[in-house]
Hints:
It is built from 15 helices and twelve strands. It has helices spanning 3-21, 33-38, 45-54, 66-75, 98-107, 121-124, 136-142, 154-161, 178-181, 185-194, 208-213, 220-229, 243-250, 273-282, 291-307, and strands spanning 23-28, 41-43, 59-63, 80-82, 112-116, 129-131, 147-151, 167-170, 199-202, 216-217, 234-238, 255-258.
Amino acid sequence: MDMRKEHVEQVERIERIKREKNAIILAHNYQRAEVQDLAEFVGDSLELARKAMDTTSDIIIFCGVDFMAETAAVLNPGKKVIIPDRGAICPMAQQLPREVLLAAKRVHPDAEVVLYVNTLAESKALADCICTSANAREIVDAMDASTLLFGPDRNLAYYAQKATSKKIIPVPELGLCPSHHQIALEDLIKAKEAHPGAKIVVHPECIPEVQDYADYIASTGGMMRICKEVEDDEFLIGTEVGLLHRLEKEAPEKKFYPVSTTAVCPQMKMHTLEKIEVALEKEKPEVVVPHEIVDKARSAIERMLELSK
Ligand code: SF4
């Protein structure tokens, strides 16, 4: 069968099952283009967490990585949260298991714990507050303690530290996102030479040298807003390449160039239309967070939503 026709028929089937089951598809900005195009809502992790709380759908098909789907499950105890490919596991979240955080808390008993949403639910349950790249600076400022344990991304910790007089201790010391950490300053300098008029917009998971060279640093949701709202019409984009699809779709009159074409998160690309269709039909794999973790993790996430209103 003609590929185009096959694709259209598959999309129609998925749309029909979604209607029959009162399901919604939420997709992160780094998802494949065809997955973004099928979703009711595309956004960054903070936007997705808020959307997951607002929806009246019975089933949430969550096209993102494990910690995002877990966050949606924690915030929606009465709903079925399904992740089309269970293998979509964020390598950065894995860098901060519960034991590592407990050990850091023992060393710094007076510090409060602020964790990036990119963490396992078991670690969130030990946090005083969660943050995302969109609100990290705001949350750090709103905390009571003058010393904060902050994890797992040392680059986001650097970004937060630049805007506060509080002491931020990264935990683990060397946590990072492999897709962003590989975006090198040399890539950025070369890209700027090729497009000297372009504004540089990067994500705070990038290394400090790249952040310091950029015109703007923001979450993917923030990057979208900046590129659409400022008058410039050319941009160098320093984040996972999936964001380019949304930028080109929503601001077709502007030009966007990736700083690094190899900044690809393989885990984010695991969800496909085939897997979404099967997940919708079978209503699995369901994301289930153990009861004892849900309540503690929820209060840290809700504190973030409250503080970043
Ligand atoms: S882009 Fe980085 S932080 Fe985001 S899911 Fe992939 S590995 Fe994790």
